[in-house]
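@channel sequence for tomorrow's demo:
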Amino acid sequence: MTPTSTIAQGTAPHTVGFTSGPNGTDFVQEESGWMTLIPTIYNADTLGIRPDLIGCPINNWSELLNPEFKGKASILDISSIGIMDMAMVVESMGEYTYPDKGNMTKAEIDLTLGIFTEAKKNGQFRAFWKSFDESVNLMASGEVVIQSMWSPAITAVKSQGVPCVYQPLEEGYRSWGGGLGISAALSGLELEAAYEYINWYLSGWVGGYLMRQGYYSAVPETSKEFMSADEWGFWYEGKAAAGDILSPTGAKLAGAGEVRDGGAFLDRMGSVVCWNSVMDENQYMVRKWNEFIAA
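structure tokens (generated this afternoon):
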């Protein structure tokens, strides 16, 4: 976030980062010294595509429902994330503009799932994946050519030598952030161990490992110490690779001259339009989502 950034819809992490005290049940916007979670990793998510099997430019979220990809599209079956991807598609189609994609009304939930239920009944989707491995297998096999994806899944497909792109789209990215919380029941040695684990987690090795999968560490400065200058340039700064870029397990992901999908950190995170959220109507949304999956 820069001073001129537009705050994306949904639950932006900085709005829920601090509470008023050790037993606080509220969120405060100043740095109070009492954090709800210690931030660890985050990313900007988009659609994954198989460029070798699609053969045409993909620039918009609406392509997920393009009849050209009938039977070869997929969306993830995790309601709180999937509904956000759906909303990105609905807006891209020009069907509706949400006041806040991260906090839909019952009518907006019905509209969103109605459009996707119709597409489902028309045979648009090959599958609805629930696990990382499922998304990788669908893409690597070519059964699916466009789908909701996560960064390490793209990494896993590419490490098999299969072309796969985390496609930048005109409407922008859907984003998420993760963190570590400490149980209020901890004290003494257990509490010290919890703090020690968090300090280790943010000390650089984990961040470097995860950034090689395309994630961003909450403390990039320490992660940088565990990455080569070429890796840092490729993953964080959007620079062309000077040599081979390897996955955390050593498989080749990119060669000299290639650039990360979506470019530099500021280009990707600067194009986030929605953060993952839990809606006020979450229970209603989950019930309607399950009806969609069963339809």
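heads up for whoever presents: The domain at 44-174+278-294 is CATH 3.40.190.10 (D-Maltodextrin-Binding Protein; domain 2).
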